Input
Amino acid sequence: MLNDFEKISPFHWRLSKKKHRAMKADAEIFASEDILCQALADASIEQVINVACLPGLAGNSLAMPDIHYGYGFCIGGVAAFPADSGLVLPGGVGYDINCGVRLISSSIPVADFMPDAENVGHAVLQRVPSGLTPRSNYRFDKKDFQKIVSNGAGEIVRSFSGNAGDLVCIESQGCLPFDNPGVVSNKAYERGASQVGSLGSGNHFIEIQAVEEIYDEAAARSFGLEKDKIAIMIHSGSRGFGHQIASDYIEVFRKKNLGRLKLKDPQLVHAAIQSSEGQNYLQALNAASNFAWANRQLLMEDVVAIFERIFAAGRGKLGLALVYDQAHNIAKFETHCLDGKETRLLVHRKGATRAFPPGHADVPEKYRAVG
Amino acid sequence: MKKYETFATTADIGIRFCGHDFAELYENAVAGLNVLLFGKNTELPAEKGSCHFSFRGDSVENILVNLLAEVLLLAYQKKQRVVSMLCNHADGCFLDADMRLAEIKGEPDLDIKAVTYHNLHVIEKYGIKNAVVVFDI
Output
């Protein structure tokens, strides 16, 4: 099947819709030949093709270099639909809505950190619930939980006297519009309320890292990263709250489309963006996204508090600052140039992130020169 | 043939199970999920209470996803384990069952977050219904 792909560059491949009768758009893979061969072996290319068979796709069905087999969409998959006439797919986001990563810089030299590395590790394990201890140390009543899912990371900054400057370093400032609590099931509220401030399991982590090598001096300087200094990375998502919302809406969309959709993969069930079901899912997705941003903000506050205690200094002196927080499981409305026309699209990214060049308006001002 | 077995890949966990009829298929699905949640050799805890599960779905796959999601909800949110399930009525579109429950001490062995439709097809072979369910972890 490799021969069916047109090699546009060593890292960019295209499968024409002419190669497959049901494809309505081309499939484009951004990967080396080795990665493409792996993707062909694990059937993830078949998933990119399945997405290319969906009606109304804006542009092509895309896959990024992390391409691997997922549920419905492959991981690394990106697909956009016109906001006014397109589709929304829970499978295009994944169960862990707004799973994402944040990076925190520090001015702590690795050499100064190492004698306390074990203390920090133990303190993090003790303070941050993870894995099979799903319940958080924090208790939020229904009213406070509603504020979290409405206001996202900003709610944690306000409640825990965090750094308001962090918010500009979070995709969408850590909040998407949510004003309809009725679209989220009680099951989801029940699962989510006890999990704000917990890390989760699977591949989620809090890592204390060392900056070993700088490849781009200007970018590193702009991000506040220095060689041989400590950095912290947090990977987590919307916990049971997002999973329940995804499960709930897969069922809603399934019921709505019963007998009408002929899908090769039931995880690709979808609804029109403008339908009431589609609108409700997008609202619920925003709530889960806000949960995840708030959760990563709270996890960061916990880690910062540990560093402040162990190194007996404030966050300013330790240089602890959020570099950036980015979602990799999300669907958002964005304006892109399509066939020479500015078009509002709903962009699904699953295991994929947006990336903007220098000068882009959505890059925080302090990073705008480097992108 | 085994009533159920569990499997794990790098990213997923799941169960394969079978049944001579729908009732046995659903019961074995719950038994397989119990093994993932609580291990195979654990002593069955004493029953404490029961609950009723009734679901009309569009297909046997739809019923399986909702039945197993209910078992997960009981385990993680209500701290209850389904010790046994008695089907009052079971077919490809409807399940009505009574579940006997026991209290869970501590946490389940695994953090299973969702039941998926991924590659879920109930296939009948030689009069036996076979299925595979993959869970998101």
Summary: The mean pLDDT of chain B is 92. The interface with chain A takes residues 11, 58, 61-62, 65-66, 69, 73, 76-77, 107-111, 113-118, 120, 134, 136-137 of chain B (CB under 8 Å).
